[in-house]
Amino acid sequence: MSRICYSASASFVASGVIGSIGVATLSHVREPRALLFAAVPLLFAAHQFTEGFVWLGLDGRIGPVALDHVTFLFMFYAQGVLPFLMPLAVLLMEPPGQRRSAIMALTVLGALVCAWMIYGLIFFESTCSVEQYSIAYRNPLTGNFGVSLLYILATCGALVLSTHRVVRWYGVLNIIGLTIAQLVKEFAFASVWCFYAATLSMVIYWQFRRRNIDVETPNGTSPFPRPFLLPWLRLNGAAVSKPQGTSGTDL
């Protein structure tokens, strides 16, 4: 089996594992404003699934038209969606204050970067190739250095500014990861960093499971039990928290 086949398998396996954890993460959401951030692992899982087909296309196992489509989908999420999605997800959870105002400004910046990236992906040709066992994605407009800095500022800046300690650490770890990816595999930055960020997003499940991400009580556990938003995702029957004042274990 070729290295490309192994890489495709790795993407599909990662997608399945992260996707399962993503569904579990959503099952622990209690506040609507936290739903988008909780969906990050599931979105990254879909992204990795897409890259699995990019690998298959580069190996000649799917046609060139299909390869063009999945390449566009991968770059659309990696370059177009993420710089707006991340700050928006953080903004929705952020309580009023100076941090929220700064994150709102980064969300606007992210929207502008998103529009620029999507314009480039639609009107300029994107290509992908295998270089040193990684995929290098290229577009003449979206690869601009200045735009890349704004992309990082919008995507990771909002995470680092969050009041929620867990979200801040997720941002710091992503900055470390993207710095390493830039230094080691700059030519395949999008592929390497997105795989790292997807894997790292599994931490979000652990934090929601421990109720360390609580919109009403940042960096703490709310004293007021609230029902789960998506109880049908839970494997057990304890879909709703017991009302305050009753005995029982909150899952």
Describe this entry's structure for a reader.
This protein is mainly α and 251 residues long. It has one domain (3-219): Rhopdopsin 7-helix transmembrane proteins (Up-down Bundle). It has helices at 3-26, 35-38, 40-58, 64-93, 98-123, 145-161, 165-184, 189-200, 202-209; strands spanning 127-131, 134-138. Strands 1-2 form a two-stranded antiparallel ribbon. The longest helix is centred in the first third of the chain and has 30 residues, at 64-93.
Which helices and strands occur, and which strands form pairs?
Elements: H1 3-26, H2 35-38, H3 40-58, H4 64-93, H5 98-123, E1 127-131, E2 134-138, H6 145-161, H7 165-184, H8 189-200, H9 202-209
Antiparallel strand pairs: 1-2
Helix pairs in contact: 1-3, 1-9, 3-4, 3-8, 4-5, 4-6, 5-6, 6-7, 7-8
What would you say about this model in short?
The protein has 251 residues and is mainly alpha-helical. It has helices at 3-26, 35-38, 40-58, 64-93, 98-123, 145-161, 165-184, 189-200, 202-209; strands at residues 127-131, 134-138. A hairpin with a 2-residue loop joins strand 1 and strand 2.
